[in-house]
Each structure stands twice: as C-alpha cells, then as structure tokens.
Design goal:
By secondary structure, the chain is α/β, with parallel strands linked by helices. Helices cover 59% and strands 15% of the residues. The protein folds into two domains: 240 residues, no CATH class; 126 residues, Roll (CBS-domain), CATH 3.10.580. The chain is built from twelve helices and nine strands. The strands form three sheets. The protein has a four-stranded mixed beta sheet. Helix 3 runs antiparallel to helix 4. It starts with a strand and ends with a helix.
Length: 376
C-alpha cells in the first residue's frame, strides 16, 4: 500500500509516519481551499489570507486524521492487538495492524472508534467556532474552524459506509463474523461489497470527468481504485495468514540452496552466480558453516576491472535478521519479514548452519494452489 515513509513523532508508544504521497494530498488540499472553497464562501479577503487559511485547513486535516487513526490504535491495544503505528498517505491514514482482530467484538469496537473520534473532534472545532463568534476570533479563523468541523462529520459519515476496508465495512464484517463465526467468509463477503463500492466510485469519477468536473472526477476515480484494491488485498492477506499460520518455514524451504565459498573471486561470483541465478544476495558457506552474506550492492562498489583481484570473503558481511530466519519459525512471520525488509528470499538457519532458503515465490505458489483447490 505504501511507498517510502518517514517517522515524524511518537504518540503514546505509536509511531506516526508520513508517506511521501501524503505531501501530494497536503498540497492539493491547501491549493483547493485557498483558491476555491474559502474564496467562494468568504469574500474580500487578501490572497495571502486565503493561502494561510488553506495551510491551516491542511494542518487541521492532518490533526483530524491522526486523531481518527490513533483512536483505532488505542482500542486495538486494549484488545491486545499488536499495532505497528499510524501512517498517513494520499488517501488519508491507516492504523497498521500486525494481525487480524481476535474476535468480532474487538473488530466492532475498533472500527467504530474512528468515526466516533471524528465526530468528537468535529464537535470540538465547532465548539471553538461558537466560543469565538462574538469577536474573539477573526473571520478567517472562523472559516477554518467551520470547515474542519464539517469535514470531520463528512469523514465520519463516509467511513461508516459498509464497504470494506472502510470502518463501516469492518462493522459489517464484525456482524457477519459474529453471525457465522467464520472470519474468512465474513471477509470475503465484505470485501466483495467494498470492491463493488469502489467500482461505483470509479464510474462516478468517469461521469464527473465527462461532465466537466475534472478535479472531482479524478479524485472519485482514484478513491474508487484505492478502495477496490484495498478490499481485494485485505482478503488476500487474510488468506495468506490463515493458510500459513502454524506452518514452519521448513515445510516450504528449498534444502539445497545456492551458496558461494569465501575463496570465490568476485568476478566469478558475477559471471557464474549473479548473472545465472539473478539473486540479490548469496549465503557464504565454508565446510557447511554459514560465514556471512554477500549482496549485489557490495559488488557494485568494486570496479569491473578489479573484481578478479578480490574474493567473496573480503565482501562478506554478517547476515542480518532481515535476511535469515530460524528453522522453527512460523511461515507467517517469514512472510511478514519479507514485506518489512523487502527481501524476497530468506536463509533458513539451524544452530548456525544454513539448511535451506525460503522464497516469496514458493509461498505464493503454495497459496495459489491451495486457494484453487479449496476456495468456494
């Protein structure tokens, strides 16, 4: 879902990060408010005033989204659901969970926490507007406060639409889950509804674009694409967790991994291994003992004409936790490590010895085959 993100602060133990795509949203929101919405409702302000109102509105949106997602995270923590943190991206924000809720009750309470938080903060903004309307605040400040009040109410209403993965879709999933006591079935149904809602928004975006509403049409189209993709991805992730849970990595690993010796020249490493197998890193093994790892990016630092004068042992580094895993580890954790580190292959180690390699490709092929055989 995300590209590169940067951590900006910690909030009660939760990391709050901003995806670079959110900067696009911040710029678009500021521009839309400063050049469109505020001039339409508040006349005769200076251009600089409208732009300051736009910046304040974007900052208020940032605070509102963080408060919304923080509420999800706090409720999840109370129910014992591990949370990675909060990430803001172009379509808003998300509280990142390590795993699915443990039961329908925790899903319900976690889902409704966000819209309730949006209603509360919307009421706070409107309350400040009422307090300051007798001259305590200037007219531009009133404009921003009213905008943020209504914006949060709209966000709460939109999020309660029963289309997964919106909060309303999670409420629907919790109800279906409680009814059938089947999380996979509940997720499949709510995800299909979410996907259908995404298609509706895409069609709405196309019609808006055709009718001359270019900016609105593009946004509806993009939001529809996001909801449709996120709903399908959420179901696929659940299937992965359910099918891999409890399975050791030893079941999926290849027991005869491609390794290199520390005495191998870097030139031979390139010609006989990197160009042949197309892997980004290779385990360095001498006498069945894992000595370290050599990565393609290390080879790039050596001029081509000098590679024959250097050995793999000179480049090998200690293998990190990002590219190795214990043989008894759950396959779900292996998949999580791959996603977090960006490595598509992990070395499987048993008491310091390399016993195999587990790859993302092998896990996905297993999942695809199992879904084809067992999915209704």
């Amino acid at each position: 879902m995300f590209g590169k993100s940067v951590k900006i602060f910690n909030l009660f133990g939760f990391e709050v990060k901003v995806d670079f795509s959110w900067l696009i949203l911040a710029v678009l929101i500021t521009w839309t408010l400063a050049s469109g919405l505020f001039p339409a409702y508040f006349k005769d302000f200076s251009t600089s005033t409208y732009w300051w109102m736009g910046v304040a509105g974007a900052i208020g949106l940032f605070i509102s989204i963080v408060f919304h997602e923080f509420s999800h995270s706090m409720v999840a923590r109370n129910f014992g659901i591990p949370m990675r943190g909060i990430t803001l991206f172009i379509f808003g924000g998300v509280a990142e969970m390590h795993e699915e809720p443990k039961n329908a009750k925790s899903e319900l309470f976690m889902a409704v926490a966000g819209p309730i938080a949006s209603i509360i903060i919307g009421g706070v903004f409107y309350g400040f507007h009422l307090i300051g309307r007798n001259g305590l605040f200037s007219q531009p400040v009133h404009g921003v406060l009213v905008y943020l009040a209504y914006l949060n109410l709209i966000l709460a209403a939109f999020n309660m639409i029963p289309a997964f993965p919106l909060d309303g879709g999670r409420v629907l999933r919790s109800a279906l889950w409680a009814w059938k006591n089947d999380l996979k079935w509940a997720t499949r149904i709510s995800s299909r509804i979410g996907s259908g809602f995404g298609i509706v928004l895409i069609v709405l975006g196309v019609f808006s674009f055709i009718n001359g509403n270019f900016i609105g049409g593009v946004w509806w189209f993009l939001i529809g694409m996001f909801i449709r993709g996120a709903s399908q991805q959420s179901y696929q992730q659940l299937l992965m967790r359910r099918e891999l849970e409890g399975e050791p990595v030893s079941r999926f690993m290849k027991k005869d991994p491609v390794t290199v010796s520390s005495s191998l020249s870097v030139d031979d490493l390139v010609e006989d291994y990197i160009y042949k197998f197309h892997y980004k890193f290779f385990p360095v093994v001498d006498n069945s003992s894992l000595k370290g790892c050599v990565h393609v990016k290390q080879v790039k630092n050596i001029p081509k004409e000098e590679r024959k004068n250097h050995t793999v042992g000179e480049l090998a580094e200690q293998c990190s936790d990002n590219n190795s895993i214990d043989i008894n580890t759950d396959a779900v954790k292996a998949l999580s490590m791959m996603r977090k580190s960006g490595n598509s292959r992990l070395m499987v180690v048993d008491n310091g010895k390399l016993v195999g390699i587990i790859s993302l490709k092998d896990l996905l092929e297993f999942l695809s085959m199992k879904v084809d055989l067992e999915e209704d």
